[in-house]
Amino acid sequence: MTDLFIHDSAARTTRRFEPIDPNHVRMYVCGPTVYDLAHLGNARPVVVFDVLARLLRRIYPRVTYVRNITDVDDKINARSRESGEPIGAITARTTEDFHRDMAALGALPPDVEPRATQHIAEMIALIERLIANGHAYAADGHVLFSVPSFADYGKLSGRSPDELLAGARVDVAPYKRDAGDFVLWKPSDDATPGWDSPWGRGRPGWHIECSAMSWKHLGEEFDIHGGGHDLIFPHHENEVAQSVCAFPGHGFAHYWMHNGMLLVDGEKMSKSLGNFMTVRDILDKGWRFGEAFRLLLLRTHYRQALDFTMAGLEEAKAELDDHYAMLSRAPAAPGGGIASQLADWAVAPLLDDLNTPLALARLRDLRTLENAVTVGGSPAVAMERARLTVPPAPGVAAKAFREAAGVLGVAAWNADDWLKGRAPRADAAVPGAMLSAQVSHLQGQAVASGQHDEEADIDAAIAARLAARKAKNWAEADRIRDELKAQGIVLEDGPAGTTWRRA
Ligand SMILES: [Zn+2]
């Protein structure tokens, strides 16, 4: 069995991963509050935990990955009041947008995607347990969690009682016994969504939603809880308090994983700074930029701050162009043997707290090894790193590349579609890397109309250029190349003739 090590935010150290049940690993990640398009920062935990889920599935026989949809929240209510659009329409549309955008980033759907509004009964049950255990109290139509009743409060975030108090709201509501107490349930007026409860018509606080949904789908305790670093306090601190106090003797999440923040051009992304970007803004550049953004996200270790720049996105796209060019040339080769050994070598850094930058470097080494066979170049350095004494046979490094790339969720598309900018199809050689539903989402976005005629025109231009070269009419050959370049068509002359790709 391969050992996986992950950094546990609660323990503040890297620990060997020991699942509660090695036959069934369970993970919960906080999902989106659905009132607006996903921004770049929202995409980071989705991609990071997608890689973790893929890695866990490679190691363990069964994995249940739960990521919720928060579809009851005061931000949604406020959006509906501003725009006049009914709440149900906002949450349905935004959930669909989220699915489409995350599919374009190559993120597989979680195994369970619970919606908060479908778990109100579980939330009420949890709150009743907390009241019965003396950890919560009803006051003035509200139910509050009593922070002083839980001695370990602040342990996850590492905040001292003084810091916690400073963090509590300045204007303390009169119904709170302690300034740090937080809302489990609050009353709703007639214009606000509400459900009947023992404390009157009302709605849940945000934190209780995740405690209820993880309980329902993963049980009183489970293996990994993930989310963005900005959720540690108060959201995750409060989840711990609720779940541990509702189920005494259970440890809730055994490992806590948090991804670092995403900056844009070195600054915190904000609407006021004018550097606010949605995932849709990136996809508007073309479907291939979805995977390019995923690669960019994985180039930085998940716990570090990540600086998004357009130049970085273009670099990631260029790296993928090179990967796909290699894949399009590589001959088919059998798996097993050296191919399996090389794939394990490329995936191994992920076992060390998801070291995606090193895993991506090893993919580049595999590309070098394959290219050495098909287009030349020296494989010596890559061979040394991969501990090979003889170069692999044609297609073997590409086979290993595909297997390892499938764990990272990159280079998942058909190479020719990518290079020629066609409507995408999944690469049939990468099983499970992409679902057909995800592919069909993207096909609608790609240039499909008139594509066939256009490709025939390009082939005709390449034939005309070849004829001009044979007639030593270099000026005409260059003119054709430049004309194609102006249309975004890049020609590559190789031993097997001229190929083309879309820039
Ligand atoms: Zn949550």
Describe the protein:
This protein has 503 residues and is of the alpha/beta class. The longest helix is centred in the N-terminal third of the chain and has 20 residues. The strands form five sheets. It has a four-stranded parallel beta sheet with strand order 4-3-9-10, sandwiched between helices. A four-stranded antiparallel beta sheet has the order 5-6-7-8. A three-stranded mixed beta sheet has the order 12-11-13. It folds into three domains: 255 residues, Rossmann fold (3-Layer(aba) Sandwich), CATH 3.40.50.620; 177 residues, Isoleucyl-tRNA Synthetase, Domain 1 (Orthogonal Bundle); 52 residues, no CATH class. 45% of the residues lie in helices and 14% in strands. It is elongated and about 90 Å long. The site of zinc ion has 3 residues, from loops. It catalyses: tRNA(Cys) + L-cysteine + ATP = L-cysteinyl-tRNA(Cys) + AMP + diphosphate. One of its GO terms (molecular function) is zinc ion binding.
